[in-house]
Design brief:
globular; 9-stranded antiparallel β-sheet; 3 helices; disordered N terminus; mainly beta
Length: 304
């Protein structure tokens, strides 16, 4: 086994340990939201989850047994009790129609998820990524109605807290999506991924997930692995689908080989994806595959 593979195995071991061994850093206090004028967060949460405790700013729910999200290797199982909190809200307008997008994050119920160490907050380890839910509500008479929603669409964040970077993007001339950027640093390696959520036929789909940045600046050097840094820049472009843009990702930068000795190399390539039946599918791909992509692909095969 070469040094690169050994380092990946070690990183995996540290990640597993962080679930059970790492001390708490963040307490799960409620997030304050600036709701758009005329929009009631409490009412929206009650509509989505059937209840809302305004004092604790959370809803009690179960992980949907019909959830399409892959929970393999996570801290969640279908049917588990969870506590759901709103964490991001934005208003947008398409023509004369006003819409509000609401994102939620869910953690295991405190009565079911005990901390590893006395004094720790429950579900507050490095690898503790909440379940993310999303809803699009449209202004109507009276009040607001749910246009699209999914109570568990992806996992994102860490330490029991949701991701910090969320924004609305235009995925078509008259279509919107939600882009979540998640950055994680561990053992000197920093990796950023983007998740694209797209409303589709009354649901919200995890339409695309890609690693967009990867580097080892925190552990490389003269007596260690070569330094590398690469990125994939996503751009929305017009394609054959008149309603949804294509996504083109352009890879640039450097990576390291899996050979022995390990060396740094330049990488480049492009991938074009087209929106079909609610998700983005690869239309064409050329150029290099990064080491983190190969590692993720290998881990997926092991899980199968």
């Amino acid at each position: 086994m070469n040094t690169r593979l050994l380092s990946l195995v070690f990183l995996f071991a540290v990640t597993v340990c962080s679930i059970a061994c790492h001390k708490s850093r963040v307490s799960p206090e409620s997030t304050k939201l600036n709701a758009p004028s005329g929009f009631d967060v409490s009412s929206a949460m009650s509509t989505l989850f059937g209840n809302y405790d305004a004092g604790k700013q959370l809803s009690y729910y179960d992980v949907p047994k019909s959830a399409v999200i892959d929970l393999h290797g996570s801290s969640f199982e279908r049917g588990d009790d969870i506590e759901v909190r709103p964490f991001w809200i934005a208003s947008t307008k398409e023509g004369d129609t006003r819409r509000v997008i609401l994102l939620t994050y869910a953690v295991p119920s405190t009565k079911d998820y005990a901390p590893a160490f006395e004094g720790d907050e429950p579900f507050s380890c490095h690898a503790c990524a909440p379940l993310i839910g999303a809803a699009v509500l449209v202004e109507s008479e009276p009040g607001w109605k749910v246009e699209s929603s999914r109570t568990a669409v992806t996992q994102s964040g860490g330490w029991g807290r949701p991701p910090d970077s969320v924004r609305i993007v235009h995925v078509g001339p008259r279509r919107i999506g939600i882009e979540i950027t998640d950055t994680d640093t561990g053992q000197g390696q920093t990796t950023s991924s983007k998740t694209l959520l797209v409303p589709w036929e009354g649901k919200i789909n995890e339409a695309l997930v890609r690693v967009v940045r990867d580097d080892d600046k925190g552990m490389c050097g003269k007596d260690s692995l070569p330094c590398y840094s690469n990125r994939k820049k996503p751009v929305f472009v017009s394609g054959t689908n008149p309603d949804y843009y294509d996504v083109v990702l352009t890879l640039s930068g450097t990576d390291i080989t899996e050979s022995d000795p390990i060396i740094r190399k330049h990488v480049h390539g492009t991938e074009r994806l087209q929106f079909r039946n609610g998700t983005y599918e690869t239309e064409s791909k050329q150029g290099d595959t990064t080491s983190v992509e190969r590692f993720v692909a290998g881990a997926s095969e092991v899980q199968k």
